[in-house]
Amino acid sequence: MKRKLIVIGLFLLTNFLNAQPLSGTKTIPGDYASIQAAIAALNVNGVASGGVIFNVAAGTTETLASATAGKISYACIPANYSSATSPVVFQKSGAGADPLITAFTPGTSATTDGMIILAGADYITIDGIDLQENMLNTTTAMQMEWGYAMVKKNPSAPADGCQNITIKNCTITLNKANTASTGIHMGDHVFNNTSVISVFATADAHNGCKIYGNTISNVYNGIDLEDYSGFNDQNNEIGVTSGNTITNFAGGAGNPCAIYASYQDHFKIAGNVINGGTGTTGNLYGIYNGPGNGSNLQISGNTITLTPGAVWVTTVYGIRNTMGNGGAANTVNIYDNILENFTPPSTASWPSYLISQESNAKTVNIYGNIMRNCTHYGGNYYYAIGESSNAANCVRNIYNNQVFNISIATSTTIDVIDYIASNTTTGNIYNNSVHGIYSNGGGNKGILLESGGTTNVYKNRVYDISTDGNGWSGQGLLTGIYISATNTANIYNNYVSDLRAPTTGYGYAADAIDGIFVNTATTCNILYNTVYLNASSAYTSFRTACVNSSGNTIGNILLRNNILVNLSTSTGSGNFAVALRRPSTSLTNYDPTSDHNLFYSGVPSINNLIFEDYTNGDQTLAGFQSRVAPREAHSVSELPPFVNAAGNDFHLADGGHSSCESGGQAIASPFAITDDFDGTPRYPNPGYPNNMGFP
């Protein structure tokens, strides 16, 4: 039968042959002079059925006695270990300050040290017992690597992991000058040797542990659950019941994390508050999940603010997940997190992801997250949500996220939502709001599809995005929705508007601004979208298009029931404001059933065109319809009576007449547009032949 141990030093009772297991309620001070003495007794005597509670008086303080404090003792009576029916609780008792334990002084020891070490322990609860570094530990070698730690009992099978440990309501303060310092640690090793133990049995893993309500500061890493065995720990939680607060972490050249985990399953990180990173010059992570085979995972309700160092940082990640590969039916959920106020010094330059989901889980859901009020000064690229995975026959859902007030001061490209998936993956990107975005770089995109199987992009709002950058890598300055390397892209019921490039032009690409751009897609169906552009630029060469495509496009593009309005001002010879631009005179991949669209580019002129293909330009709808027949036979051209285009409200105003509504009937109840995002059509009679499409 396996032994379960708690260790806090070698305070062992020498006369243990007649010792009795502990039970009932004990007081500290009282029954035991200190927490150390109580743990020493527990190690020798074990615990009786019914368990034992240690009530530690509020305001109690003690300092661990020696460099051996926290080391394993094998003196526990074999049959008397904590279990579901005999739990052990150490808890604060009474009003006042939490009991406080100060670290021992290990001299010049370079051994990995911790203050409270749970070695293969089960059913232990520690509630409101604070830990702090000793001020006499002035060098890294002397300082604590761990506050609380959960490790294996044995260096080989049976390794005997910790089961059902709860650490809650504790304040842990170490010294982050020690880049190995971690507030709460769980490791796949024994206490005095960090060599990884390979385990392949449930009892050897760390399972059912809960870490919540703790305040952790002045640490290099906040909480880490480092299982490297490849055999997943099960049902561990960080937060959930109540969140942990992790502040003033990181600050050096390593790769620090507020929360890190690997090889977990049915794992939850929820409700935590993270704020720190100042001075960090390596990778910086708020939450980072490493490997995990077929893991099920929840990251939810966390609030994260990162402030990296003043020099180049490798990459900054608010949330990064690589856990969950290889699952046949597993799910990764990342939802309701707030990532805000990422503000580095003005000299900083680093790539950044607010959320980066990289695992090949079967199903991934990223939803309800808010990313806001962040400033960036450079570093090649910036992503608010990056979904990148290569697993076949999977599902990716990105929905109900809000990204706003993001400002990038130097030449950096921002792809607000970046989606990469295998050519058999189904993706659904919907009900997201992207607005208030500024970048000084070129090639910026509101929603970018870099690859995928069948990808549905619908009911998104992409608006109020501005750039002063230059064209980049053959791309325009700014695109609302960009489609590339996708088998089937269904782009429908989206709003794209208020895209601006006030001081620059197209650079290396054809257009400065495109509402929707199709680069490569086997099939691209563009349906029921509203694109409204009204941009201008002081640059000498400036062109725009509501919908554009490149010569790389393969397959078929279908346009139906869209409103495409371009009121932009073009500059420079051969540049136009157009509703629809195609890459050549060929109509091969322009679906013959394309129809029922509204095309409008202001008063027809040499610079305001319905259609342009780099050879021909059509100022009038009739000329365009003649050129592309039999396509667009029922399409129309007018400026619709929007409620407030300047305010990005593209409902049609009641009382007006528009070809968009039932063949030009007056727009009034019951024909008024219904709400865009409540799941109902904008028109009560969507089957009417002349109905245009709206989100």
Tally of separate helices: 2
Main pleated-sheet profile: 18 strands, mixed
* Average pLDDT reading: 85
Backbone structural class: mainly beta
| Termini Cα gap | 65 Å
What's the β-strand tally?
Answer: 56
Overview of the structural elements:
This protein is mostly beta strands. The chain is about 5% helix and about 40% strand. It is built from 2 helices and 56 strands. The strands form 5 sheets. It has an 18-stranded mixed sheet. It has a 17-stranded parallel sheet, with helices on one face. It has a 17-stranded parallel sheet, with no helix packed on it. Strand 2, helix 1 (about 35-45) and strand 3 (about 45-55) form a beta-alpha-beta unit. The longest helix is centred in the first third of the chain and has 11 residues, at about 35-45. The N and C termini lie far apart (about 65 Å). Residues about 1-20, about 70-80 and about 665-695 have low confidence and may be disordered.
